[in-house]
């Protein structure tokens, strides 16, 4: 009965490790080189929250460039960076770092197993179509997931955390799909609305956020792989 199951993925901070690009950027432009991992992760959560708000509307890329620079102004002020550094410099370098990211070994293994097992897979991500397509191409996800089932908020005309966003995707899937697992990193954007849409979310809680919820939760990509495969093996 595995053919009736689908596994969907978020992109940013789920398949694409944006935290690593953020960390490289901070270490290049900050004069303080002693930031520990706990501080950077805590600080990144604020940056990530701001980024989510930008992407929720699914705006075109050229309409939110100002907002993207504003998120870096917060970084510059908090870390007391040199005044000759521009927010656009940080944003450009951040995206350069993003362009050097690859799919992790764990996620590569998972997607390979799902493909070989003929498990239906898809993507649901917020952001502009152009920008998110670049990320999808960067991670070479087309080899695992048919572009037909890669849903981007701008093209979909709806965005997370709207429950309607998940329901629109459900309506477009083959009728034989009866159960949809969704791996996402954001409790507010991914997990809560997916649950409300009768999907089966798995929370990739990379940064140890505290939420009281009965949903499946994993802390690492390795745990995500084990949990997803375990769920599929026990599906009836």
Mean pLDDT: 89
The main β sheet shows up as:
6 strands, parallel
Number of H/I helices: 10
Major sheet: arrangement of strands: 3-2-1-4-5-6
Binned, the helix content reads: 40-55%
Number of strands: 6
Low-confidence stretches: none
**DSSP strand content:** 5-15%
Alpha carbon gap, first and last residue: 6 Å
Oligomerization state of this entry?
A: single chain
Q: Secondary structure elements and their pairing?
A:
Layout: E1 5-9, H1 18-29, H2 37-56, H3 65-78, H4 87-98, H5 105-116, E2 120-125, H6 129-138, E3 150-152, H7 153-156, H8 163-172, E4 179-184, H9 187-196, E5 200-204, E6 216-218, H10 221-233
Parallel strand pairs: 1-2, 1-4, 2-3, 4-5, 5-6
Helix pairs in contact: 1-4, 2-3, 3-4, 5-10
Polypeptide structure, described:
The protein is of the alpha/beta class. It is built from 10 helices and 6 strands. It has helices at 18-29, 37-56, 65-78, 87-98, 105-116, 129-138, 153-156, 163-172, 187-196, 221-233, and strands at residues 5-9, 120-125, 150-152, 179-184, 200-204, 216-218. Strands 3-2-1-4-5-6 form a 6-stranded parallel sheet, with helices on both faces. α6 (129-138) links the parallel β2 (120-125) and β3 (150-152). α2 runs antiparallel to α3 (65-78) and α3 packs across α4 (87-98). The longest helix has 20 residues, at 37-56. It is globular and about 60 Å long. The termini are close together.
């Amino acid at each position: 009965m595995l053919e009736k199951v689908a596994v969907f993925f978020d992109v940013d901070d789920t398949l694409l490790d944006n935290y690593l690009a953020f960390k490289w950027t901070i270490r290049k432009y900050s004069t303080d080189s002693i930031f520990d991992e706990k501080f950077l992760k805590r600080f990144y959560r604020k940056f990530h929250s701001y980024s989510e708000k930008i992407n929720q509307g699914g705006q075109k890329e050229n309409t939110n460039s100002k907002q993207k620079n504003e998120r870096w102004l917060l970084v510059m002020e908090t870390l007391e960076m040199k005044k000759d550094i521009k927010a656009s410099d940080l944003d450009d370098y951040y995206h350069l770092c993003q362009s050097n990211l690859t799919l992790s070994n764990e996620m590569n293994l998972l997607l390979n197993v799902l493909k070989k097992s003929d498990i239906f897979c898809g993507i649901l991500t917020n952001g502009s179509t152009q920008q998110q397509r670049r990320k999808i191409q960067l991670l070479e996800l087309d080899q695992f997931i048919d572009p037909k089932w890669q849903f981007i908020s701008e093209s979909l005309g709806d965005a997370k955390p709207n429950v309607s966003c998940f329901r629109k995707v459900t309506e477009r899937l083959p009728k034989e799909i009866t159960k949809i697992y969704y791996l996402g990193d954001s409790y507010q954007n991914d997990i809560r609305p997916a649950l409300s849409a009768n999907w089966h979310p798995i929370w990739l809680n990379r940064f140890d956020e505290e939420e009281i919820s009965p949903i499946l939760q994993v802390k690492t990509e390795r745990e995500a792989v084990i949990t997803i495969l375990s769920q599929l093996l026990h599906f009836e």
